[in-house]
């Protein structure tokens, strides 16, 4: 099984920041290849028996073991030079939608792990937006079920709260069932700039067959 946490630690030294989610995806896949040259690494891979929309960001085959990796890269605005390369990160908002989409990643990985032998799922969320990892000051928000702050225990059927607007829920109306139980623990990734939004942290959720089935 691919040690995603170890690879992220190595990658952070060489690539403390990324231009986009696609940049993050490519860099992580290349680092997997560097650390395991014998592994088969595929991007945007569609597992068999799943519909045409069920693509996995990174699919790694190491002998009989498979790692399915889904990525999220959400940013607040940050201009910075790293060596001779300039990064101008977008100031993305809509954290509620970002959280919902991460839940969908976990749900999809649970389905894959349950259906295909020898697969372990890894959902990775990398951000410099502390709103994702900090404990919310208020409860009962429309996206309370989808919160991913430090220490959250994630489980159960997750849905929008009363009052969620149709615009927020557009294309994301369905509740998301999470079969496993996951304790969320954020880790430091990098701090390329001593400034607001200069620190990056990541959340890694591992999904295996035991986790998915032990509570069903």
Describe this structure in words.
There is one protein chain. The protein has 216 residues and is α+β, with helices and mostly antiparallel strands. The protein has one domain (4-213). Helices cover 28% and strands 32% of the residues. The protein has helices at residues 4-14, 21-35, 95-115, 130-133, 166-169, 209-213, and strands spanning 40-45, 56-62, 65-74, 78-82, 85-89, 119-127, 153-158, 176-183, 186-190, 200-207. The strands form three sheets. The chain has a six-stranded mixed sheet with strand order 1-2-3-6-10-9, sandwiched between helices. Strands 4-5 form a two-stranded antiparallel sheet. The longest helix is centred in the middle third of the chain and has 21 residues, at 95-115.
